[in-house]
Write a structure and sequence with these properties.
The protein is an alpha+beta fold and 470 residues long. 15% of the residues lie in helices and 16% in strands. Among the domains are: 137-185 and 202-249, Roll (Membrane-bound Lytic Murein Transglycosylase D, Chain A); 270-296 and 309-314, no CATH class; 344-468, Immunoglobulin-like (Sandwich), CATH 2.60.40. Strands 8, 10, 11, 13, 14, 15 and 16 form a seven-stranded mixed sheet that branches.
Length: 470
């Protein structure tokens, strides 16, 4: 919070301003004694700085409620034992029976007459069970990178059908987390009643592998996503786990005359699973393929929207006209960064922090860092495109307070900042004599040491926006 007299920032649960000595207003509710953040009345640890708050005090009415429950239970037990009409236990004497062993009279033996053999009933044919009706619609929650065209290809429907079922107008944009209603294509109605039935495919079981999706499995076995969802009772096409068993229809038998078959892919086509750090350009360069061909074959509209684990059909460049019998070794996928991208934890995207409260940023740990490995935090103005960072710092910890120079001035509008975190490698210059072992970095006011040359060891974590003040 800030001092009401000198407007200087004050951290922790202090009662007087360390700058001017003015008395500070007592904050309402329970607050952390270390960072001053508001905490729950029952909390035992601060959710911002992790400080131990001690056991939460137990209110007096809890003890009275416990005593009242014990008294009621004791009264019910006492009333049960003191009721005059309650049945009493009556001892029952057991009669003693004397058993006298007697020799049984001899019995006549006889030879059994064999019965005629029972005829075995002939097997009867069991009528097939009726087919499970396929659901008319499914719901899909929009994920980062989803487009109407890609969803229409995945579910085998048209873009117009998805827009009509979900109430979308022409040109409406998709939002992450938005729930769409997708109608599935119904069964064909062209056959006449009583006509010859079309032979169905014999289903078999397929075990889901890492990186599989319903669209890739449907393309591999010549079926549709809608058929796979109906056959396995799936409500969403996005929730598959490695090791899950799916019932997959086999190839349909040929009923006499030859039917049209889809155009097969070239024999040298490969399936490649996108790895962390891959781009469509790097994949095309590794395999000597055309980026435009990769986008057309895999129905990709935006080359920057690739998902880790996504399967791509790779068609290498034009082969030489002279065939060779020596098979080429498969290309080795370019290894990704050595560290995963740190994921932001706090505050949530778009969250607002009061002007008199510290702005704390925190993110997930990627493991133990070496001496020359750091977390790089960069902060930009959220509303200015192409602006230079207003703060950047190298840290070993997984949390950092924004410097006070970035706080909004009293009476001025709130400030919006965008921040991201990397894992980098850097060798810090020696500290000046008399200085501490702080982290390198600078803010908008020029405080701190300049950053040394950096080697990036991870992709940036997801970008988040923080609103300070208001």
């Amino acid at each position: 919070m800030r001092c009401p007299e000198c407007r200087q920032p004050v951290e922790g649960a202090q009662t007087t301003c360390p700058h001017c000595g003015a008395a500070l207003p007592r904050p309402k509710g329970r607050r952390c004694p270390t960072c001053g953040a508001p905490v729950s009345r029952r909390a035992e640890r601060c959710f911002l700085c992790g400080a131990d708050l001690g056991p939460a005090p137990r209110p007096a009415w809890r003890w009275l409620a416990d005593l009242l429950v014990v008294a009621v239970v004791a009264g019910i037990v006492a009333a049960w034992y003191l009721l005059p009409g309650r049945p009493r236990e009556v001892p029952v004497a057991l009669a003693t029976a004397t058993i006298t062993a007697t020799r049984p009279p001899p019995t006549a033996t006889h030879t059994p007459t064999p019965l005629p053999p029972t005829p075995t009933p002939l097997p009867t044919s069991t009528p097939p069970l009726p087919a499970t009706p396929r659901p008319a619609v499914v719901t899909h929650r929009v994920e980062p990178g989803d487009t109407l065209y890609e969803l229409a290809q995945r579910y085998g429907v048209s873009v117009a059908a998805i827009q009509k079922a979900s109430g979308l107008a022409e040109g409406d944009l998709l939002r992450v987390g938005q729930v769409l209603t997708i109608p599935l294509a119904g069964p064909s109605e062209g056959g006449a009643v009583g006509g010859p039935s079309t032979p169905t495919a014999t289903p078999h079981t397929y075990v889901v592998q890492a990186g599989d999706s319903l669209s890739s499995i449907a393309a591999r076995f010549g079926t549709t996503v809608a058929d796979l969802m109906a056959l396995n009772g799936l409500k969403s096409a996005d929730f598959l786990r490695a090791g899950q068993e799916l019932v997959v229809p086999g190839p349909p038998p040929t009923p006499g005359p030859a039917t049209d078959t889809p155009t097969p892919l070239p024999t040298d086509a490969r399936i490649y699973v996108v790895q962390p750090g891959d781009t469509l350009l790097s994949i095309a360069q590794d395999y000597g393929a055309s980026m435009q061909v990769l986008m057309a074959v895999n129905h990709i509209e935006d080359p920057s929207l690739l998902r880790v684990g996504q399967e791509l059909i790779i068609i290498p460049g034009t082969p030489t006209p002279e065939p060779t019998d020596t098979p080429l070794p498969p290309p080795t996928a370019t290894p990704g960064p050595p560290f995963p991208a740190p994921a932001p934890l706090w505050p949530p995207d778009g969250a607002a922090v009061a002007a008199d409260m510290p702005a704390l940023l925190s993110w997930t740990s990627v493991g133990l860092l070496a001496e020359d490995q750091w977390y790089l935090v960069r902060v930009w103005p959220a509303d200015t495109v192409g602006a230079e960072p207003v703060a950047e710092v190298l840290l070993k910890e997984t949390s950092w307070h924004l410097p006070p120079t970035l706080a909004p001035e009293p009476g001025k509008p709130a400030r919006r900042y965008r921040w991201e975190v990397w894992v980098v490698q850097a060798v810090l210059p020696p500290e000046p004599e008399g200085g501490g072992m702080g982290a390198a970095g600078a803010d908008a006011g020029g405080a701190g040491r300049p950053l040394p040359p950096l080697t990036y060891l991870s992709a940036p974590g997801p970008s988040r926006v923080l609103v300070w003040g208001g």
